[in-house]
Write the structure tokens for this entry.
Amino acid sequence: MELFQSPAEYTVRGAHSCLSCSRSNGSMEIKAASDVDLSRAVCLGLVEGVVGKFQFHPDLECFLVLIQSKDLVGTVFGDHEMYKITKVAVIPLTNDEPQDLKLEFCHMHMQFAGEATVPVTQKRSLADAGAKRQVMCITPLCLIS
């Protein structure tokens, strides 16, 4: 799934549907992928799924919690795969730029330029190596993929 950023929202686009999350109030909405205009949005990279929205306290900002990587742990009933979350990405739902996401590049939004691939509409982290990180402990409730 691709993660897009626009001034108003973050959008996670799957094969048939999109989940949009407002950067101002954290409201979430599911839409058909064909109904979403991402022409002005920037692709931030690939994610495996969405854990949900998280808030430490009602007076503090909300965070969008995304599944960055997962590992197959087995199957049940023959063909239903079960995964464990191995890495999450946490994005503050504010107008601030997300810092240090380190998401896998989306190949659809890359172009070949000589010997190196160059992002077309995809961002890299704006954080420098000395940027502070906030550590959060999150217990996933469900896995959507």
